[in-house]
Amino acid sequence: MAVDLAQDAHVQDLAERTARFVREVVVPVEEAHGGVLPSDGERVRLQDAARAAGVFAPHAAPEFGGHGLDMCGRAAVFTEAGYSLLGPIALNIAAPDEGNIHLLERIASEDQKVRYLAPLAAGDVRSCFAMTEPSPGAGSDPDALSTTATRVDGGWRIDGRKWFITGADGAAFAIVMARTSGVPGDRGGATMFLVDADNPGMTIGRHIPTLDESLYGGHLEVEFSDCRVTDDAVLGEVDEGYRYAQVRLGPARLTHCMRWLGIARRAQDIAVAWAAERQVFGSRLADLGMAQAMIADNEIDIAAARGLILHACWELDQGRPAGMEVSIAKTFTAEAVWRVVDRALQLNGGRGVSGDVLLGRFLREVRPFRIYDGPSETHRWSIARRAVARATR
Ligand SMILES: Cc1cc2nc3c(=O)[nH]c(=O)nc-3n(C[C@H](O)[C@H](O)[C@H](O)COP(=O)(O)OP(=O)(O)OC[C@H]3O[C@@H](n4cnc5c(N)ncnc54)[C@H](O)[C@@H]3O)c2cc1C
């Protein structure tokens, strides 16, 4: 089937304005603070600037103040936003809020949209998505889900422990996956609940120290103990949580790819500029074969990742599940982005690991992407199973 990846004029214009905004307004803040947002006040300031520039919330529906881009449109704009570690925060398209906005637009009731989606899309509040649990609970295998939600008078009682919950510190609410039927190890049924941060049954615990620091709000342990919620906290239907997780995760995996592809392009720009300037052994670094190989391999990785992302986006935009295409794009991009940043750092020599350029920071930020949104091994396992099933059906 033919694949049409042409972007319309509105998307192209938004992508160009986003690129300008990120380079002129966001990159200077990022460079001044080593790639890490210094305060919530700075988040608000950058988001105000993005609103003024007309580039805020490109993914959200127009009734929630956004541009309503489809997945292919997001690929163009999010990659430009991802050129800086702080670009996605400025545009309100950082994880996990961006994925939660996508999910709430599709699954939430009208009341839930007013209460949770509207302030989230506007950037007035932050949120988190609580799925992963310490061993032996859910991680790459979602069937291990151990957090339970049991029916009580007037609603539900949630009990369990989560960890690595990005942005939980300061979030106004959590979308929590809890088991509502079956036992850990079989799929059974899971349900998503909207839990307000001031619920006395939800406790935000330790900030887990990690390699990365740019995903705002950190990664936290969260405990649910006798956490009571009413029926209107159920997101969608009871026992449909695994299906909704796919509604969120397929697009969210790709939007992570788009943002990190932006950082790969930035790293390559830094490396090429340096290689063109630096003189070694009587010539420009850029004229030496092994340096050229690294520059060329970066171009190849960037182009291939972009193509795989766009293909998977196009499949999703056609209304198809695109599980295979998303897994391929996610695995390749997570590994390609790492290779690109690593080569860029190498080309910069000692300067590459110094604080004078942000390549060391980029390397730390992109490494966990080979683990979250499904580790590479889980995706390869799933790709191989689909390939064998296709060949033997
Ligand atoms: C920075 C960061 C942010 C995160 N943010 C969130 C968040 O906001 N919300 C949330 O719910 N979770 C979040 N997570 C958790 C993340 O989704 C999990 O870490 C991920 O799903 C892997 O689960 P796990 O850590 O339990 O690893 P495990 O499931 O224990 O897997 C360990 C390793 O086993 C290997 N493996 C897995 N599957 C296979 C297979 N089929 N074949 C062979 N080997 C395999 C892989 O190498 C894998 O890394 C975050 C994680 C990180 C690192």
Automatic annotation (TrEMBL):
Keywords: FAD, Flavoprotein, Oxidoreductase. Residues 128-210 form the Acyl-CoA oxidase/dehydrogenase middle domain. One of its GO terms (cellular component) is cytoplasm. GO terms for molecular function: flavin adenine dinucleotide binding; medium-chain fatty acyl-CoA dehydrogenase activity. Residues 12-124 form the Acyl-CoA dehydrogenase/oxidase N-terminal domain. CDD domains: ACAD. Homodimer. Belongs to the acyl-CoA dehydrogenase family. One of its GO terms (biological process) is fatty acid beta-oxidation using acyl-CoA dehydrogenase. InterPro entries: Acyl-CoA_dehydrogenase, Acyl-CoA_DH_CS, Acyl-CoA_Oxase/DH_mid-dom, Acyl-CoA_Oxase/DH_mid-dom_sf, AcylCo_DH-like_C, AcylCo_DH/oxidase_C, AcylCoA_DH/ox_N, AcylCoA_DH/ox_N_sf. Its EC number is 1.3.8.7. Its cofactor is FAD. This is Acyl-CoA dehydrogenase. Residues 240-387 form the Acyl-CoA dehydrogenase/oxidase C-terminal domain. It comes from the Bacteria.
